[in-house]
């Protein structure tokens, strides 16, 4: 979606919520260094 906008040159990820109670939050990587579901989606974009 962002790639098709002529005024977007690049974009960055900002981590908003830390993982809590077994949830991933918005982290791209888990504490063991593996990608989270969110991280995999960001990588695929």
UniProtKB/TrEMBL annotation:
Q: Which residues form the Asl1-like glycosyl hydrolase catalytic domain?
A: 2-42
Question: Which top-rank group of organisms is this from?
Answer: Bacteria
Q: What is the lineage of its organism?
A: Bacteria, Bacillati, Actinomycetota, Actinomycetes, Cryptosporangiales
Pfam families associated with the record = Glyco_hydro_cc
Molecular function GO labels: hydrolase activity
Q: Which UniProt keywords apply?
A: Hydrolase
Question: Can you name this protein?
Answer: Glycosyl hydrolase catalytic core
Q: Which organism is it from?
A: Cryptosporangium aurantiacum
